[in-house]
Design goal:
Two copies of one chain form a homodimer. Chain A has two domains: 64 residues, Winged helix-like DNA-binding domain superfamily/Winged helix DNA-binding domain (Arc Repressor Mutant, subunit A, Orthogonal Bundle), CATH 1.10.10.10; 156 residues, Up-down Bundle (Four Helix Bundle (Hemerythrin (Met), subunit A)), CATH 1.20.120. In chain A, 74% of the residues lie in helices and 2% in strands. The first copy, chain A, contains ten helices and two strands; from the N terminus they run H-H-H-E-E-H-H-H-H-H-H-H. In chain A, strands 1-2 form a two-stranded antiparallel sheet. The structure holds a DNA duplex (30 and 30 nucleotides). Chains A, B: It holds the Pfam family GntR.
Chain lengths: 230, 230
DNA sequence: CACAAGTTTTGGTCAGATCAAAGGATTTCC
DNA sequence: GGAAATCCTTTGATCTGACCAAAACTTGTG
């Protein structure tokens, strides 16, 4: 039992993945599509909504939907609303943060074992940006994020940068609520330095341990904020 | 700029998370909802579709939507269609498989370091099921999956079992296409034994290495199948 | 050539109607 | 009495046609 909507979805999906509808191009108007597929606007509209939820088109209210090349970022973006549901509860936040810790410990190990020369250069550059921004809390957040980003790029697997985006976007609300101070920035800077040193020394165990200390401490800060906020 | 649909979505979300609409209960009929929210069926329908995409309700064609408690499985399920888009390309499959390898290497290490007595018992039980099913290929697939599942449960973080579901469901089509033979089953069984031994010996490095060999070999089998299929 | 005003297109929403499947309620039959 | 077949109401899926306000496009003007 197929719904008419499914037919339209399949048709549009085909036209997108065949490249007939190119990335960045606007979708035909709803009325044009109803002529093309011989369906009413209801089903066209429903199909477009479905494509939007699959990350194939980007919909803004009152604007023509825009075709997007499916990518890992799109997947994470689509996942956003569902994840936010889970972040309503403290346990949800903790689960997600601990997942992040798990991933980044492994990333630190991976970096120590396999980082190339250019990776290490990128890491050092990010570290210097940290140092330069240590007095400027908002800017430090940006460079902090960039430092971790480098680690997600080292495996050269496009899934990881997308996961990085996901973690940071989902957890940001809980992060900015935190009391960010220059003192904490210094702690984090020192932690980054330790991680960098361990990676430079090609010592996976030390890198993992340093990352673990860093993120467990960060989690402690976040949890404190929770406790205060009640 | 708010759309009427957003209002209905918010209203239903509230009624769900407040428990007024309990898990497993059926949503009111579309006609009832349009009376309640003073909106036309179009917006009600669009709102329900949106909730479905957020994993808050489960929709089957021609059936009344059913309320679901938001959970990590729901998130992964919602992500499914988008991920499947990416799996259309061989690079997509490889990225996802390598992500799995990355995660399970870390899980093996984690297990060796922190598995409790009951975890190890579960692992041994799963391993024995592997042994018993080694001649029965379809059954071996089931027990194979169960063995890996145990590893995802060891960190006691609800995100991981959901990720396990995701990996297996997404990759299953590429797995079943593979030439599964008793010979391959034996290879995998031996690999599982090696992983188990390393975890039992509390040797993270050996556990990670064993897992790595296991999954790289598996990836080799999958890739061969690709090459044959063209 | 840029910018403002006017016109057409188009997404968001509504109202009302049809149809076939789902879900009960009812009756039939062992 | 309980399982199975049958009837009837509800309800999801789809269609038609319409209206409005915001976008997108066109045109006139400085």
């Amino acid at each position: 039992m197929r719904r008419a909507t499914d037919h339209v979805i399949a048709g549009l999906e085909a036209r997108i993945s065949s490249g007939e509808l190119a990335h960045g191009e606007r979708l035909p108007s709803e009325r044009a599509l109803m002529a093309e597929f011989g369906a009413s606007r209801s089903v066209i509209r429903e199909a477009i909504a479905a494509l939007s939820n699959r990350g194939l088109v980007l919909c803004r209210p009152r604007h023509r939907p825009v075709v997007r090349r499916p990518g890992y970022e799109a997947v994470l973006e689509v996942t956003g609303p569902a994840v936010r549901q889970l972040l309503g509860t403290p346990e949800g936040v903790e689960s997600l943060f601990r997942t992040r810790i798990f991933v980044e410990r492994a990333l630190a190990r991976e970096a120590a074992a396999n980082a190339r020369r250019e990776d290490i250069a990128a890491l050092r550059q990010a570290l210097e940006a940290n140092r330069a921004a240590v007095e400027d809390t908002p800017q430090f957040y940006v460079t902090d994020r960039a430092f971790h980003r480098v680690l997600y790029e080292i495996p050269r697997n496009p899934v990881f940068p997308a996961v990085h985006e996901g973690f940071f976007n989902w957890l940001r609300p809980h992060w900015v609520k935190m009391n960010q101070t220059v003192a904490i920035n210094r702690v984090n800077l020192a932690a980054h330095e330790a991680i960098y040193e361990a990676i430079l020394a090609r010592d996976p165990d030390a890198a993992e341990a340093a990352m673990n200390r860093h993120l467990e401490a960060a989690w402690g800060f976040v949890r404190e904020t929770f406790a205060e906020a009640g």
